[in-house]
Amino acid sequence: DKTTSGVLLAAKTKEAVDFSQKQFQTRDVKKKYICLVVGRVKEEKGVIETLLGRSPADRRKQKAYPLSEAGPGRREAKTEYKVLQRFQEYTLVEITPKTGRKHQIRAHMASLGHPVAGDKLYGFKNQQAPEGLARHFLHASYLKITMPDGIEREFTSELPEDLKNILENL
Asked: pLDDT at position 128, please?
């Protein structure tokens, strides 16, 4: 998603692209995101397991379906989350996607009734956003992947200033 900040993996050669894509397909890449969601998440941690498929109401969006509602174009998606900090009207969570589906985090959190703060696509009608938030509050903070030379590398990214400021103002 273009307004998501943080770690971004880029490859210089076709071989490197193929090598890294294979790791994403076999789910060997470890990823973590920091996300501010609307509302107070009750549980300290949890797992969201659904099928994700295109929303019939809005073709730009993904929709979470129960695992029992298999259908064409619906694929399993699993997201783990852990509460980092609670605010009056928001919750800061660490998200670990176990699969890599389009808009997975945004669709999963919205399906729990806690859309990502500032998310205009998956947010609720007339949803308030923290003052000064100009994009959705989703940040790729960590990536662990094996390089073509066999060495495992970890990459981290601190929250950018705009998102730090939002948290300070909460």
From this structure: 83
**Burial letters for 70-89: b for 16+ Cβ neighbours within 10 Å, e otherwise?**
eeeebeebbbbbebeeeeee
Decide if 1 is catalytic. Answer: yes
Q: What's the residue count for the chain?
A: 170
CA distances from 50 to 41, 62, 63, 68, 163 (A): 18, 12, 9, 9, 29
- Assess whether pLDDT exceeds 90 at residue 24: no
Asked whether the beta carbons of 145 and 9 are under 8 A apart, the reply is yes
pLDDT digits 0-9 by tens, 98-121: 998 989 999 999 999 999 999 999
Burial class (CB in 10 A: 0-12, 13-18, 19+), 69: exposed
- Given the residues 1, 119, 149, 162, the one annotated as active site: 1
Match 């949803």 to its residue by tokens. Answer: 127
Residue 19, pLDDT above cutoff 80: yes
The tokens for 105 are 């985090």
